[in-house]
Amino acid sequence: MRRITAASAASLLLLAGCGSSGDDSSAAAGSDDKIAVAASDTACEVAKSESGAGTVTFAISNKGDKVTEFYVYAAGDRVMGEVENIAPGLSRDLHVELTAGTYETACKPGMIGKGIRNGFTVTGSAAALTEDAKLAQATTDYQRYVKSQTGALIDKTTEFVAAVKAGDAAKAKALFPVSRTYWERIEPVAEIFGDLDPAIDGREDGLEPGQDFTGYHRLEKDLWQTEDISKSGPIADKLLVDVQKIVDQANSASLSPLQLANGAKELLDEVASGKITGEEDRYSHTDLWDFAANVEGSQAAIAALRPALEEKDPALVKTLDERFAAVEAALETHRSGDGWKLHDQLSQADLKVLSDNINALAEPISTVAGLVAGK
Ligand SMILES: [Cu+2]
Questions:
Q1: What distance in Å separates the CA atoms of residue 357 and residue 118, rounded to the nearest whole number?
Q2: Which site in 161, 262, 286, 301 is 20 to 30 Å from 324, CA atoms measured?
Q3: In this prediction, what percent of the chain has a pLDDT beyond 70?
């Protein structure tokens, strides 16, 4: 769950600026041109309301004073693509693969609510990106990864929930970051199915009217802050039900190679907005577990795309390898036992080194979607 406070907005500036490359060599499918989106605090002006099928590229400029997000939804608010954390004054591109049908776009100034919606219609047909054998292989490989992670997610969350319900706080505390690891590795896939993510991974200050504080972070608060899990049983039961729903959906979804590319970038944004700041696991301070998991998830998506990327841009693959290695090396200095040091054991200088390395990796990763789209 990615929510941002004013305090962490500054750390995002570096990240947010890097999505819009000027390279416009057009691909066969879809619209040839970027569709401009002028986002402000009160409006979301999408230059076109329709497009041909294939890869559609939106170029979002945030002209407002609030940090914004942009989404493309299919029926039932299924997320086809999203860009988060677009700081005021910045622009980002979003590449999404769309087949004929009706969609909605949304800008979310302040990153809350259902956003300012517009209809968007796609007509005609186009060759799917997966007609490229290497991209087809990428999605097959990544879906196998999702399956392995969701299996472990269910197993470990079941153990965590059982410990909470048994009143075994020590065991529950030990299992909390372990069960979250599998969630954080595949979070962009989980976020495709809109409303379950806040229920599973929402934080108390990010709730919208009508939403209850449930999920991992509610149990985290009960364990570490309230230190009373005697009434946490129903919350624990609901977490397991919600996780099972998302696991079923994630395993039945077929993903576009662009969702892998966008997800690899989203995971790094998640590190910058929630983990470097210590916001996400504010009661347990187990943020570095999530940090490592987000990086591993990003790496897994890039690994699946690797044969396709090798063909298109071998130099980029080399850069990505080096920068993933640098992030790993920076993180490695904070290992503790089977896991990681707590967030509040790290100095500001330590966090700066981690943040700099994440930013250096996010920049080349932001070009992967355009490459996959052939744009
Ligand atoms: Cu999260």
A1: 37
A2: 286
A3: 91
Residue 287 Cα to ligand 1 midpoint, Å, equals 10
Separation of 184 CA from ligand 1 center, angstroms? Answer: 6
So what's the pLDDT on residue 14? Answer: 38
Q: How far is the CA of 101 from the centre of ligand 1 (A)?
A: 31
* Whether the predicted pLDDT of 307 surpasses 50: yes
Other beta carbons less than 10 A from residue 242's beta carbon? 20
- Return d(Cα 324, Cα 361) in angstroms, integer: 7
Cα distance between residue 327 and residue 46, in whole Å: 37
User: Given pLDDT bands bounded at 50, 70 and 90, which one contains residue 1?
Assistant: low
CA of 315 to the centre of ligand 1 (A): 31
Distance CA 205, CA 202 (A): 9
Choose the weakest-confidence range: 24-28, 97-101, 117-121.
24-28
Distance 23 CA to ligand 1 centre (A): 32
If DSSP states are collapsed to H, E and C, what string results for 269-308?
A: HHHHHHHCCCCCCCCCCCHHHHHHHHHHHHHHHHHHHHHH
Q: How far apart are CA 173 and CA 219, in angstroms?
A: 10
Q: How far is CA 28 from CA 54, 217, 291, in A?
A: 8, 45, 38
Give the Cβ contact number of residue 227 at 10 Å: 10
pTM: 0.90
Least confident of 17-26, 87-96, 289-298, 351-360: 17-26
- Nearest CA to 302 out of 364, 253, 249, 375 is that of 364
In contact, 145 and 260? CB cutoff 8 Å: no
**CA 3 / ligand 1 centre spacing (Å):** 9
What would the two tokens of residue 112 be? 């809350």
